[in-house]
Inverse folding.
């Protein structure tokens, strides 16, 4: 398995251990992780701290040219908000652990020039399916149902 997707899965597991939603993300630039994050909406009482947003925040300010060379890994398909951040910062590639439990606007990202790779990782899917089964109300809150 890709070491960067493994790092995103580690982040998802951290979030779950903290009582949150098990979604993790890492930002990779030139073969190095420059930001890590996990969904912390529950832990921080936040409306916006999805894994990708937490990851970008933790990466700190970067040059536009760096974002264009970066790859964002996420254990779950990014939602509209997180996909908007990808477009805003011009991130060139997104690697998605799985998109069976939730599918964000992947086609829109592609139409805007972002390379989107779906890994279809079984561990990512199992984490989400188990969480959704145990916490349907929290999951529905997170995705705005």
């Amino acid at each position: 398995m890709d070491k960067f997707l493994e790092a995103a899965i580690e982040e998802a597991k951290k979030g779950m251990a903290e009582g949150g939603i098990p979604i993790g993300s890492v930002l990779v630039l030139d073969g190095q992780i420059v930001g890590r994050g996990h969904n912390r909406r529950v832990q921080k009482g936040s409306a916006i701290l999805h894994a990708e947003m937490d990851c970008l925040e933790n990466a700190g300010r970067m040059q536009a040219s760096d974002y264009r060379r970066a790859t964002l890994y996420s254990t779950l398909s990014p939602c509209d908000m997180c996909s908007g951040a990808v477009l805003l910062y011009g991130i060139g590639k997104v690697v998605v652990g799985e998109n069976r439990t939730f599918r964000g606007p992947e086609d829109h990202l592609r139409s805007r020039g972002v390379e989107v790779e779906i890994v279809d990782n079984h561990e990512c899917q199992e984490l989400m399916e188990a969480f959704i089964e145990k916490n349907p109300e929290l999951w529905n809150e997170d995705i705005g149902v």
